[in-house]
Amino acid sequence: MTIQETSLPGVLLITPRIFRDPRGSFQETFNLRAMVEAGLPAQWAQDNFSVSRKNVLRGIHYQTIHPQGKLVRVAFGAVLDVVVDLRRSSPTFGRHVAVELSGDNGHMLWIPEGFGHSFLTLSEEAGFAYKVTDYYSAAGERTILWNDPDLAIEWPVSAADVIVSEKDRQGLRLRDAEVFA
Q: What CATH number has the domain bearing residue 94?
């Protein structure tokens, strides 16, 4: 397993070794010892899994009450995963990093507390798995508008083709949102 820093300090790209042979493939998706050595948490509160069809965009989500660190990966299919720094005191506040995660490449992202998270499904269907460090808090749930022009995220889908929930359509611009200190 290799672990690399991204352009956002604390957000890590994790690439497991994938063993392929005529039968298929095998990869270790979680190893507590390796994760702790990389600075990730030793305890997790929940595992979540979603399935999304092509052009579904989820996010940009975060929680102000019970903020969550997330370890995310794609079990099958492909997504463009986007992480936004929402820490006002950070020199990278408002900047984002985008990484393609897929069942084929096995990449994972560690997203610490203080960051917003979003993804766009690139394949016909994608299975998205994530471990979180704290429980879901409806009272603390917040959403930044996925197409906020101040963020300048280059989504590879037209606004006419993107599929976004009503809740995500109601997201706030970063400049109006409650974020982290």
A: 2.60.120.10
Quick check: is 130 catalytic?
Answer: yes
For 77, the domain range is 2-176
Please identify which of the residues 107, 117, 130, 135 carries the catalytic annotation.
Answer: 130
CA 6 – CA 9 distance, rounded (Å): 7
- What's the pTM value of the predicted model, to 2 decimals? 0.94
Active site residue 135: no
Contacts of residue 64, Cβ cutoff 8 Å, sequence gap at least 6: 140, 142, 178, 180
For the stretch 64-109, pLDDT in tens is 999 999 999 999 999 999 999 999 999 999 999 999 999 999 999 9
